[in-house]
Amino acid sequence: MLRQPILLLARSQGVKKLVSTMPVSSSIVTSYVPGETTADAVAATSDLVDGGLRVTLDYLGEDTTDAAHADATVAAYKELLADLATKGLAPHAEVSVKLSAIGQFLPDNGHKVALENARDICRAARNAGTTVTLDMEDHTTTDSTLSILRELRKDFPETGAVLQAMLRRTEADCRALAYEGSRVRLCKGAYMEPEKVAFQDRIDVDRSYVRCLKVLLGGQGYPMIATHDPRMVQIASSLASRFGRRPGTYEFQMLYGIRPEEQKRLAAAGETVRVYIPYGTEWYGYLMRRLAEKPQNLGFFVRSLVSKK
Ligand SMILES: Cc1cc2nc3c(=O)[nH]c(=O)nc-3n(C[C@H](O)[C@H](O)[C@H](O)COP(=O)(O)OP(=O)(O)OC[C@H]3O[C@@H](n4cnc5c(N)ncnc54)[C@H](O)[C@@H]3O)c2cc1C
Q1: What Gene3D superfamilies does the record point to (predicted)?
Q2: Is 304 in the pocket of ligand 1 (CB under 6 A)?
Q3: In terms of CB atoms within 10 Å, which end of the chain has fewer, N or C?
């Protein structure tokens, strides 16, 4: 019930200004974001990799309309990738990129700039010995993101895609992307979307998630099952055995700080588990989407804001 108001709040510049004065050290922020710097991100990666997990790293930021800001984001990814390679972490850690952080919304030639910037990051990832996955943002960006994915895959076929089960179009998109070598992360979808394009009831989103799982696990690609939902994890495991898939021909993914014990349990059972680590100073939008999913944390969040510790 609180999901939509929190997601609406996430768009308020006034609230953003107030909340963004909270230091990243505030405990509600650190429960989801391990730090602001490349060093913080690499340290968190190292800890998780030592524990038998894999990682995907997101340099936080989105919706930029400033070309210099987009360039700075590309530079941050390149610094990160070089560091992962130097520390021997690249075989276990890839990066997740939001196209709106690297120019997709620039007024004149956003699509083209985002494509070139993404190409630059893909090249750096390949040199480091790892891969890129393009995060998916709200439905107005889906066509542009999938078209950039198609372009990138001509040179970097290892580039991963994300599809959101809440969108009505997604089952068809899964069919189009379930081909050999195609890495596809399936998530429920974190954005507030209109009824015309998206299922509104949780039960309908869950049903769509299961239909999409069937397409992806029954297909030829490499499904990346991104959910904390115990039912979806269980259904995915049963479908994987039904389709004769062995662990390692698909993977589970969860967010940093969410159900860490389940992440370890799945890895100990022989599954590939990848943890999504967001880092950087621009944690506002990310934090608000997580609060929308777990409104029980709202009281805790408001208290942190009032005490500003
Ligand atoms: C690796 C990864 C990458 C993602 N990338 C994208 C992306 O590119 N674009 C996008 O739109 N969204 C993305 N998401 C977010 C996703 O769309 C969902 O918003 C988010 O994962 C919550 O959905 P859920 O499947 O976990 O289940 P929900 O429907 O939110 O929750 C179902 C159940 O899961 C368990 N659960 C959920 N959250 C918690 C928690 N905090 N603590 C304990 N139990 C919990 C509870 O049992 C809950 O009842 C990503 C998610 C992951 C894991």
Answers
A1: 3.20.20.220
A2: no
A3: N
